[in-house]
Amino acid sequence: MKKKKHTIVNIKLDPEEQELLESVERGEWKTTDNIEEETTFAKEAAANFIRKDERITLRLSSGDLDRLKQKAAYKGLPYQTFIASVLHEYAAGHFIEVDSIK
What we know:
5 helices
């Protein structure tokens, strides 16, 4: 069976993610014998990790909401999902704060 080579474009990886990508590209990863069991386990773990169990009410300016809706539409996402994703990325530390650039 031929291995597919996937190319990741325009994604900023942190050093750990970059090392993982390079490791995969060097062929250092092996397929597990029980892939279905491992896949099921990983899906359940991911679902439990990202479970949304809190609800918030948020007031935004209509202009900000319109721009968020436009960006969500461009990405093909519902705007509430897009907003949750942006907040998650920020909370996980994937955005650079303007103060740290100066």
